[in-house]
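Suppose a classmate hands you a notebook page containing two proteins, each written out with its sequence and a corresponding row of structure tokens. How would you begin to make sense of it? This section walks through that situation. The first entry is reproduced here exactly as it would appear on such a page.
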Amino acid sequence: MSAGIPLFILSALASVILVLWSRGGAGDKSSRIKIAVFTLAILVASWVALLSLGVFHPVGLWGMSVGFIISIASLFVPVVYNKVRSNENT
């Protein structure tokens, strides 16, 4: 239970950031939407594994771990993507 609240907060924040990032901005949105959908699908799959099997099952534990990693990494996805795209244009 103690890991559920921070994971939920991180997941909600990551989802909001990815949705806002994928919808806003100039330029081609298809690659941003693909990245956001892929990341959110992994996040949803980790939540499904965690909630269906529980944290004490090995798959549920991996689901929680992947959920934390994806949630934290998705906070940096817009920054890394914009940096790669700006280097690609120069």
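The notebook's second entry, a different protein, reads as follows.
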Amino acid sequence: MNEKINGELIIIIYFPASKNNYSHVCKIFLEKSLPRYLKDYAKEIRPLIFSLIKFSSFKTLKTAGCQYVYIIKDATPEFFEKMYDFLDRKKRTNEFLNSYSTIFG
């Protein structure tokens, strides 16, 4: 069955530590690298909203991670399998990606 999938995807990445460049590197990864890798599995992967996840530690705000919201149009059933494979590979090779979670609806 070749049913196409449409909806909003949120990818949340948690940093292993609070370093200044993690948020910038992560934004580029989520905005450019991930959609480029998945372009063959969806008609459209449009990055919509980027935001940082902050927490308070002794009266200072620290960055715990980031998230990106995407609009997904006409994705194939392989889309999510390829996305998780890509994220798992990047988790093993990039220091900024400690763990991640996804929400789709």
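A careful reader of the second entry would note: The longest strand covers residues 60-75.
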